Automatic annotation (TrEMBL), chains A, B:
Cofactors that this protein relies on: Mn(2+); Mg(2+)
Organism: Paracoccus gahaiensis
Pathway: Amino-acid biosynthesis; L-leucine biosynthesis; L-leucine from 3-methyl-2-oxobutanoate: step 3/4
Ranges of residues in domain Isopropylmalate dehydrogenase-like: 5-366
Annotated binding of substrate, by residue: R97, R107, R135, D231
Protein name (record): 3-isopropylmalate dehydrogenase
Entry-linked PANTHER family: 3-ISOPROPYLMALATE DEHYDROGENASE (PTHR42979)
BP terms from Gene Ontology: L-leucine biosynthetic process
InterPro entries registered for this protein in UniProt: IsoCit/isopropylmalate_DH_CS, IsoPropMal-DH-like_dom, Isopropylmalate_DH
Assigned keywords, A-Z: Amino-acid biosynthesis, Branched-chain amino acid biosynthesis, Cytoplasm, Leucine biosynthesis, Magnesium, Manganese, Metal-binding, NAD, Oxidoreductase
Complex and partners: Homodimer.
Site positions per UniProt: Important for catalysis: Y142, K198
Record gene name: leuB
Length: 370, 370
């Protein structure tokens, strides 16, 4: 069979703990399903800064470019808050996204039935929620030039004498390719795409709307397309999130709206993500998989973090990088079975819920359920 | 007593209907509390475009500059969707904000006890919610240059051949003045400010954080200040909105986060806003008041819109422009009393809720309760 190469970047905080459980899952598929994985490990974020003075070394970057899929845990923590912008842990993640050209960030927001009561929203508003946010990940205000903080001393009206600048810049090509990803994904789901921008205020939003519409008319007329201003989108996500199927939006709106959507589900410790780029020579897309949650420094090192988001990120790798659809389904089903059996990490417990399991036990239970 | 000058701009959609009820309230205060109002009326948005070919005429702009307070209904509607960006209804509103230099947009998100069950969030998460979002309103990506859509024909990688650009630009002075507004307001409430940006990704966010911190240390050390990334802010607003007192953030984040916060309350038809600038010669701030809801074209002209958000916007005018604190309190209390009596417009009804009142009857009941 094919060999699958993986680079594991556990990162900071709870990253290493949850990634250890993913390794158990990888080993299970290797031992029991005849898959062959070439797994290597490296540093990213604060851990890389501590070792090399940079949140991603050139050597790690080169390895990430060469593998089929990168699995990332989480980056950041209070220890690194005072670092200069250019070497903050986040810059390691942003460099991976940019240099691997991972333009389509897939963030499913699913409400797991066993956990619907964890949402701050009413059960009847979120039960069965299953939406997919496709966020543009390599352009927009995250990367546009010019950017920086400059002195503005010649401006007598500017108390403080500085100015901070960032640039939102989108080309039509950048918009079209992520729109295509969204339409393709919609065809495999509910066949509906809602595109969000602020075309009433921003010219880059007008271009966004026009290019998404063009791709729709030329290539995906069978998919239902609607447009919504991003502020209304935030409202509608809170009011009635199940009205959506696939949402496509830019880097910055996607950052905020996908976090809001994730929180709707009440299952932040459960949500995976995939960041995909163009196909490589072997036909597989450039790819990075990571949980939506952060490094959670407050609980790091205590063995209590929930590894499910990271494990489900590996399920996305099985699906989108390796085409192992049956294996991906089996892994997701194993997670659901363990939850249905009442196995819960601390974040999934109500006060009267009994004894929580730790990170390692949750991983073991999921492997056993496979 | 003083005379108070008001310019009423009802605008589009339900704007004229809800504003008619505000006029009743103004008349009541004139007749019964010895206040003297100079009230004039004019056009904004699509209504102004229909009359003058521009969403705000120069003459209207000059009148807005000369009055104590502008009351605005709502702008926009499907009839104007195809108009060129430069004459869209929204441009009229943005011109008012910019030329009047209304840098501090106050958006309270309150959950009215009688209406807590309307929220899509659980009652225990939103009951008693009372937060205030202070949004910077005259700068940032809404107004920064360069901006526009250009051809990018020399770039062979850009399928489509265009590029859309907007610029996020903040001066330290712009950040400091809105931070001061937030700290001042916090002192009259819970004495806590949370500032939101993306300082982990945007240099303008770093400047934002540094300048807010500077104002805090120099001038408001007695107020509690915290910082949060805007994506986490969106999450926390959904998870546990009552953790906040005053939130201060930039124009674009404020647009999105305040709409999400408004929707949390379940009372979109109830929420007012104030946009304040620098003091004029008479000591009153430049000011514009408007409901948070939009022009609601689907129900316009049917006499069923909820006028409370617009009436409460006038209460904010009484408080912030005229210093009529007792009158503002009385008007807010009248609204609460009418709600407590079970009087409901259609948007505030559950299916089994009985007969809704229309726009005019709701206005009459509030006047009667005064
Ligand atoms: C860590 C940070 C740079 C990142 C972002 O802003 O994109 C994170 O919030 C995310 O959504 O993946
Ligand atoms: C109508 C539109 C231009 C406006 C904005 O984006 O500021 C609106 O959404 C608001 O929040 O007042």
């Amino acid at each position: 069979s094919d060999r699958y190469s993986l680079l594991i970047l556990p990162g900071d905080g709870i990253g290493p703990e949850v990634m250890a459980e993913v390794v158990k899952v990888i080993d299970w598929f290797a031992a029991n399903r005849g898959m062959e994985f070439d797994v290597s490990h490296d540093l990213v974020g604060g851990a890389a800064y501590d070792a090399h003075g940079a949140p991603l070394s050139d050597a790690t970057m080169a390895r990430a470019q060469a593998v089929d899929a990168v699995l990332l845990g989480a980056v950041g923590g209070p220890k690194y808050d005072a670092l200069d912008f250019s070497v903050k842990p986040e810059r390691g993640l942003l460099r991976l996204r940019k240099e691997m050209d991972l333009f389509a960030n897939l963030r499913p927001a699913q409400c797991f039935d066993a956990l619907a009561d964890f949402s701050s929203l009413k059960r009847e508003v979120v039960a069965g929620l299953d939406i997919l946010i496709v966020r543009e990940l390599t352009s927009g205000i995250y990367f546009g030039e010019p950017r920086g903080i400059h002195s503005d001393d010649n401006n007598p009206d500017n108390e403080g004498g500085r100015v901070g600048i960032n640039t939102q810049r989108y080309t039509s090509g950048e918009i079209r390719r992520v729109a295509r990803s969204a339409f393709e994904l919609a065809r495999k789901r509910g066949n509906r795409v809602c595109s969000m921008e602020k075309a009433n205020v921003m010219e880059s939003g007008i271009l966004w709307r026009e290019e998404v519409t063009w791709v729709h008319q030329q290539e995906y007329p069978d998919v239902e397309l609607s447009h919504m201003y991003a502020d209304n989108g935030a409202m509608q996500l809170v009011r009635n999130p199940r009205q959506f199927d696939v949402i496509v939006t830019d880097n910055l709106f996607g950052d905020i709206l996908s976090d809001a959507a994730a929180m709707l589900t009440g299952s932040l410790g459960m949500l995976p993500s995939a960041s995909l780029g163009a196909p490589m020579a072997n036909g597989r897309p450039k790819a990075l998989y990571e949980p939506v949650h952060g490094s959670a420094p407050d609980i790091a090192g205590q063995g209590m973090a929930n590894p499910i988001a990271c494990i489900l990120s590996f399920a996305m790798a099985l699906r989108y990088s390796f085409g192992e659809l049956a294996a991906a389904d089996a892994l997701e089903a194993a997670v659901e079975r363990v939850l249905a059996d009442g196995v819960r990490t601390a974040d999934l417990m109500t006060p009267e819920g009994g004894r929580p399991v730790g990170t390692a036990e949750m991983g073991d239970r999921i492997v056993a359920a496979l």
